[in-house]
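Researcher: Please translate sequence to structure tokens.
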Amino acid sequence: MVKHNVLTKRCLLAAASLLLHVTLLAAAQLFSEGKSVYKIVVAAGATDSEQTAARELQAYLRQISGAELPIIGAAEAGPRHLIYVGFDSRVKAITGADVPAKDDESFTYETRDGNLYIYGGRRRGTMYGVFTFLEREMGVRWYATDCTVVPKRSAYKLGDLHVHEAPAIRYRFAQYYNTMDDAWCGHNKNNTLWAARRTAYGGIGAYWNAHTCGQFVDAEELFESHPEYFAMRDGRRIADGQLCLTNPEVLQICIREMLKAIQSYPDYWVYSMSQNDNKLFCECEQCTALAERYQAQSGVMLWFVNQVAAAVKEVYPDKYVGTFAYQYTRKAPLGIMPADNVVIRLCSIECCFAHPLDQCEHNKAFMADLKAWQQIAPRLYIWDYVVNFAQYHAPFPNMQVLARNIQIFREHNAIGIQEEAQYQSAGGEFAELKSWLLARLLWNPYQPTQPLIEEFVRAYYGAAADAVLEYIKMCRDLVTPQTVLGIFIRPNHELFNDEFTAASRRLLDDARKLVAGNATLAARLDRVRLQPMFLHVMRSPEAAVADGTRDEYFRLMRDNNYRPRENKDIEAFIRECE
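Model: Translation complete:
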């Protein structure tokens, strides 16, 4: 009798276990045929970005499946059928994870007992986890502000998921005109723009200003009464150069203005105390002695900036002061180091961008400077360049180097990367493709680039995609081992030739016929066509007038207010061409 009861008990336990297993399998059906038993739970104390993520998760799942998943608070949550957004005591108890730091942008999403838990840092980490779940598991893509892809699915089961990601670069800035959109930045993990602002997507971080010496000590206002504040060149003080950094009154003015700037713009994390955009450094006896002592002009600047940073630290211990390693200050000094609250913003303006930085003879000096700054700078921030500022619409075949260059910066301890591009208007060379590609590579530069390019092109250009991919290959084939691709090259540069210009025009003009009935695709392709059109207008002006290319180019530019160069708007450019 006892033996029979034991066997019965074991059978009942086995049956219960099997029933639980079947129940959990059924619970893992997130949605089917427009219905779902799941609810989205917003963790206790959810931030604005976590609430945004929950709402968007609900909206996108509705678009994908037709199912409406209600959003509830943590206090209302039962034990089953949950998508938990955010981290709280319940998530900690279930997952055993440590409480993420608020600004930690890493995230985890994982399934346990048929529930899905998405959590990370409260500012943006959880939100990035939600968007990555929608991307990776559901196929959602936010390619550009005019192109979001949301696939339809009739059913989806939650499998055994455990995904954890962390950004390769802390501060990520793809500086295109078309990236200045809060939603695009949130979806694509672009957490920095030129101006800081608070948004529903966790806010936008920023590095405040640049070339501030002339802003803090204004030559127009002060040169006549205090010429000693300004650089000495060839034995006389000049108003259009740098400051005299060894003048104690200049230091006090800059400290005062820096503190005022931080008070006026409190949402930035770092504030620039940096040289003017010229190479006319001070040659007075005191400044020259410091340069000789530290064996570089950067030593004079760093000696000055460290003092400003010390004053800032007393009032704002959580803020940073940044300065350039740029042109005449690019070489790292000896015998002096940046203070622990100083950020060095190293600029690659002189580099060749046809080949990876570490595989190009032209870039050897930059690589040496990068390594030297890595040794002494606790916080190294990179200002990189990814377009041709002399001709925004000319081909700039650099996509093959983007991933490797970001890897190099990461491997030299860069905490942030600013990829300066066409920031003044839309219409730049492959602006949509490159901004999306850069955003993904700044998060993870160790992924293959070509599949990303092909994915974007097929989604964005539709029937013209094959032609666009062929054109990208044609541009890339222009690069040889001897090519030096700077950011100010002109149409007569050896990179370009008339055969390429003619062939690429024919290719893209033929592709235009394939999308003629779709205004959206036609407009996207026209932005690609601007590239060989520009070369034709500039290299063969008489022929471009005769065949109508110049008129079409000017019309497209005017209709869309595209800017052709950093220092010229479209009307000034047209006057120059005429």
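Researcher: Any highlights?
Model: The radius of gyration is 28 Å.
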